[in-house]
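Example record

The entry below shows one chain as it appears in the dataset: sequence first, then structure tokens.
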Amino acid sequence: MSALTVVRETVPPSSLARARAISLRGLSRVSEAGLLLPLSVILVWQVLAKFSVLDSFVFPAPSDIGRTFILNIANGVLLRDLWASALRILPGFALGSTVGLVSAILMAWFRPVETALQSTIGAVYTLPKIALLPMFALWFGIGEPSKIYLREL
């Protein structure tokens, strides 16, 4: 017999329904309270941007951002740019996933491979990837290959 069965047998159904309703109302209040701060920040941001307290080049009004977002969806610019970004990200992701999966399988199956690779992989993992950018630019050039290899890490 599970704990849920014991609770259902010992507590009258009306009490369970009332407890569920109270907990759902409490959850609703928590959700509403969680939205209060972000919505307040957006509202203050909108007002300050519309009264030119904030530089509109640095902090455009949220309504302007939403309008531009909808316009870019309607004229296809957003989809085109998302596709271009995906074409840049996917080769590095595929290469990194493949190398990582093969390395992990080899390390799991063969102890000498694990011994040889573990310290190097641990050292490379802790490096900030942006710190490798100058070296990658020297090794692979400024074009797409250096960016793909950097994303692979």
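Notes for this example: The two ends are 51 Å apart (CA to CA). Residues 1-60 form one domain.
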